[in-house]
Amino acid sequence: MLNIGLHPYQPGHREPRADWRDHAACRLADPELFFPVSPGGPSPDQADDGRAARAICATCPVRRECLQFALATRQAHGIWGGMSERERGATASRAALRV
Ligand code: SF4
């Protein structure tokens, strides 16, 4: 699993830089909306199908950048760019078929 980035809501992302995360609509949101409560807990896919997280993503000015980052870095968990891990996997598979 390649996971080199922090989700925008995570406080640790505040490194000295200016990028798309600084404009993320989820920066002040409850992290549990975007990720499982625990490794064994329900994922957004299982809980509310990520509806609450997706509603925040729908208002986000950097949704495209977020999704591109998640796909490029193969983020395996959570809602990124309004898509669940399953949806991102399907998107990546379709993109691979077009190559
Ligand atoms: S698209 Fe969603 S997960 Fe990505 S930065 Fe915006 S609110 Fe956060």
Provide a compact summary of the structure:
By secondary structure, this protein is mainly α. It has helices spanning 51-58, 63-72, 85-98.
Topology summary:
Layout: H1 51-58, H2 63-72, H3 85-98
Bound molecules: iron/sulfur cluster.
Iron/sulfur cluster (SF4) binds at residues 8, 24-26, 56-57, 60, 62-63, 66, 79-82.
Low-pLDDT runs of 5+ residues are none
Quaternary state reads single chain
The structure class reads mainly alpha
Distance between the amino and carboxyl termini: 22 Å
Count of all domains: 1
What's the average pLDDT?
81
Number of helices: 3
Strand percent estimate: under 5%
**Which molecules are bound besides the chains?**
iron/sulfur cluster
Order of helices and strands: HHH
Helix content: 25-40%
Structure write-up:
With 99 residues, the protein is mainly alpha-helical. Helix content is 32%, strand content 0%. The protein has helices at 51-58, 63-72, 85-98. The model has no long low-confidence stretch (mean pLDDT 81). It has one domain (11-98). It is globular, with a radius of gyration of 13 Å. The protein has three helices and no strands. Bound molecules: iron/sulfur cluster. Iron/sulfur cluster is lined by residues 8, 24-26, 56-57, 60, 62-63, 66, 79-82.
